[in-house]
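Lab notebook, bench 4. The sequencing result for the construct came back, and we need a structural model before the next group meeting so we can plan mutations. Quick request posted to the team channel:

Model the 3D structure of this chain.
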Amino acid sequence: MRAKVSDPPPHLPSAPIARLVGHDDGPIHAVKFTSDGKYCLTAGHDRTVRLWNPLRIDPAYEYGNAAPANDVERPPKSEVSIDSLPHALPIQVYSDGHTYPISAIDIDDSSTTLLSATDKTLVVTDVLTRKVKRRFQGHTGRINSVATSADGGVFLSASYDGTVRIWDGRSFSTAPVQTLSDATDSVSSVTILERKNELCEIVTSSIDGRLRTYDLRRGLMSEDDLGKNLALTSFAHTSDGLRGAISCLNGAIHVTDRSDGTLLNTCFGSHTAGRYSLECKVTADDRFVVSGSEDGSIVFYDFASGCVAQTLEGHGKATCTVAVHPNKANSSVTVSGSYDGNAVVWR
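Done. Here's the predicted structure in token form:
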């Protein structure tokens, strides 16, 4: 596999710089940066979650020529072989409690509590000790998405069974605090929005074509109906939470004003969709929407115009999960996970 290297617009990645090597054969289902951007997590079909420093090289990796310094930086060429990329530094492996492939992950802001979904079970793991702290069960379908509050006190799981379950991370009860059952089809993603360290909104996307927002302070639920038979696969938002990007199974990404649901823009046509649930993310500078693609590429759309700003090519199979660096200074750093079994760092 070879990645095409191009000259990008400012603040966008142009080339692969490292590979996250360690998962056994099988798809990479989820990638996630820690809140400070120092580390990232990957979850695979091999039933493990792995923690990495994506911008440092593994001292055990041997270069064909002289190795560069500790930071992962290599001069881009017109084409780069994915298989020949230096290996990023592995930190830890989390495998306990996972009896099925892992479909979703999240981590709290202090990077001490890891959430992972293995089929219908939500697993809570202590990041430092690697010990499983809790296991929550009750869903009747596979969990598609998980989310934790910033302080790790509240956990959410969204499932193929059409429900979102809210769990108390501090009590000893294994029953959900509340179950949201408004969706009429699989819930593809769940997101927590907080302001001033207070959990204020829960946003869910569903295959039934509706984006639902639960205002926890006012006790209200609102729905944005994007159209009949339009399956929603992912939701992302700007840093202020005022605008959202909604990825759809038909290959469109709709940019909306979250205050009234007004459609601001539609990004369409440059990523391939239709068979897989693709993630979209908004870069830390709020300038671009990033999406994986079933043809293995990663596409960056300009948030304001909807036009393609950059396309990264290199994966051999569908790229369903992407993570963008949370800090504006490193907004060009992106990690992609693919069904070809590779997780790649781009910069």
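The first strand starts at residue 2 and ends at 4.
Will bring this to the meeting.
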